[in-house]
Amino acid sequence: MKKAMSRRGFLKGAGAVAIGLPFMDLMLGAWGAQAAEIEVPKRLVTFFFANGCPPALWLPQGVGRDFVLDRALAPLEGLRSKIALVSGLHDPAGKAGSGDDHSRGSGAFCVGHSNPYQESDSFDASGKRFASSAGGASLEQFARERLRPQTLLGSLEVATMRGAPFSRTYHIKSWRGVNQPNPPILNPLDTCDRIFGVERPTALPTDGEARQARYQQSVLDTILPEYHRVTSERYGLSAMSRTMIGDHLDAVRELERRATLNEREMLAACLRPDQPQSYAETRYSEYAEVFKLQAELVAMALRCDVTRFSSVMLGAGGEGFKLSEFEGAHHELGHQWNARPDNDFVVYTRFQMELFAHFLRALDSPEHLEANGKSVLENSVVLAGTEISNPSNHDHDEMLYMVAGGAGAIRTGYHHRIGDKRAVNDLYTSCLHAVGVDAPSFGAAEFNKQALELG
Prior knowledge:
Elements (H helix, E strand, L loop, with lengths): L6 H13 L4 H4 L2 H8 L5 E7 L33 E5 L13 H8 L13 E2 L5 E2 L8 H9 L8 E5 L7 H4 L3 E3 L2 E2 L6 H9 L11 H9 L7 H7 L8 H31 L17 H17 L5 E6 L15 H6 L9 H19 L16 E6 L15 E5 L8 E4 L7 H10 L21
Parallel strand pairs: 1-8, 1-9, 2-11, 5-8
Antiparallel strand pairs: 2-10, 3-4, 6-7, 9-10
Helix pairs in contact: 1-3, 1-10, 7-11, 11-13
C-alpha cells in the first residue's frame, strides 16, 4: 500500500532524525519508526440525522466484535470495521428545557445542555413552544476553540433540508455558545464558494526562485554543520560509521524527494472542483444528490486541511420530508411506528444511512492516504446521532450513537455496550479526548460522570 507523505510532516520527522546524528544507536533505522509516528491532523465532525430511531431497528444482540449492523443500519455493514456502535446511553439534556421533544433533543445534540427558556422563543397557533437557542457550545466548536489550528476555515457547517423550520434548534447543530449559532449552508454551490472562495494556494510555485525555496532546499541542508562535525576525523568515528551516516542521509534525502512529489499530487487534488449546480431550495426529490455534493465537499475540505471541524446535517430535527417512492412522510411515519412497525419509517432510516455511508466512504478514500498511511476517516472522529430515540414515544433513552474513524483512540469494528444508564455527555468527553482536547467533562456538570473507556 502506498503511504502518502506531506513534506511538512516529513520535515518534522526527518529533521528530528537527522539532528540526532551523534546518537548512532538512535539514528539507525530511525526513519522507519518516525514514519509510523508522523503527526497528522485530527478532525472532529458531528453528523446529525433527523427523526430518531427506535432501538428495535438498530440495537444488536452481540457486543464487542460480535455484532452486525443490520435492519435500519444495514447500509453501514460494509463499513463496520470503521464504526464504533455505542449503546446504553440516554440524553438527559434533551428531556428538559425549552421547546418540544424534537426541539429539546435537537438543541442538546452534541451540546450536552438543555435549551434555555428565552423571551425570543417562538410559539405556533396552538401555543407550542420552539426554542431559539441551544444551551452552550457544540462539541466541534468547543474543540476548535481549545485547539485553534491554523487552518483557512475555523469550521464548516452544511445541511440538506427543506429550508429553515420554526425552531432554530431544529435547523442548527453548531453553536459557539448561547445565542451564538453557526447556521448551516444549504446550497452546495455556496459550500464550494465557502471552501474555495478564500485566498489559498491553487497551484505550485511557477518561478524558479520560489520553486527552489520550497522544493529543492532540503531539511538536511539545515544540519550540514552538524554532519561535517560528526563525520570529521577529529570526532572519532570509524570509517564504517562515517559511511553509515552518509548512507543514512542519502536515504533521508530520497524520502524527502518522495514526500515532495506526494505534496505536488495532493495539492493538485485540492484545487477547486467544477462548480456544482445551484440548489437555491432543495426539493425532496433532490435530497440524495444535494447531500452527496455537500458530503464530498466537506470531505475535500477536511482532506486538504482547509478545516478540521465540521457539522453535517441530514434533515432538520422533526422534519417531515417526503420521498415519492415511500408511503408517507418521514416524521409522520415515526409517530405511527409503535402501531405499525412494518411501515416505511425503517426504509427512510436506511435511506439516511446510505447517505451517511457515502460520506464515510468519501473520507475513507484509499486514494488520499495521509502521512501515517491511514485515511482521513481513520484520523478523524465522526460522531453520528439524532434527536430522539423512539419517534412514537419521543423519548430520549437508549439513543443511537455511532463513532466512525476513531482517530486511533476509539476502538472501531466494535459494539460498546455501556451500563449504569450513562449520559451521552460522557461520550462527548471521550470524543474530545480522542482528538487531543484534555477536558474533564463536556456540557452540563450534572450530566457528566467520566469519559467512557472506548479504547
